Amino acid sequence: MKKLTLQEMSKQAIIAAVYVVLTLSIPAFAYGPVQFRYSEILNLLAFFNPYNAIGITLGVFISNFWSTLGVFDLVFGTLHTFIAMMFIIKSRHIIIASIWPTVFAFIIGYELSFLAGFGSFLEMTYGVMISEFVIMTLIAVPVFKILSKNESFLKVIGYDFSRELYY
Prior knowledge:
There is one protein chain. The protein has 167 residues and is mostly helical. The chain has one domain (6-157). The protein is 65% helix and 0% strand. The chain has helices spanning 6-25, 45-48, 52-63, 71-90, 94-103, 106-115, 121-147, 151-156. Helix 3 runs antiparallel to helix 4, helix 5 packs antiparallel against helix 7 (121-147) and helix 6 (106-115) packs antiparallel against helix 7 (121-147). The radius of gyration is 15 Å and the shape is globular. The model has no long low-confidence stretch (mean pLDDT 93). Pfam families: QueT. InterPro entries: QueT. This is QueT transporter.
């Protein structure tokens, strides 16, 4: 990866801020045993530009300062996003990219069950998996397929037109 420019750092700060605002707009569904963060839609920005993983991961970290789970969410929530981002970046098909947060939902399941004591590991993991699948695959994929037809949008998010992606 090349060096981050001031313009790229600014984009990442904006992505992080948007993630935080979206997460905090409905905190009842962003934290605790029922997690339905519609801000997770932004995860697919990393599919189009690997640098966007920085803003998303930073946004998750900052959002988790408001979590009722405290430091656990700072660590495990950010870890979940970071790992999912690494796989999203490597994916070449948008459907595959959208699945990674669902695959790694067990990290949040562990946090919710063993560390926060909300329920069984499987129950918490399945709940997060369903949420991630609905948000990332059923909602975000169609949204980004539409947005990806707009060249101006792709330029704004820093899409590298030399990358061969399938959406």
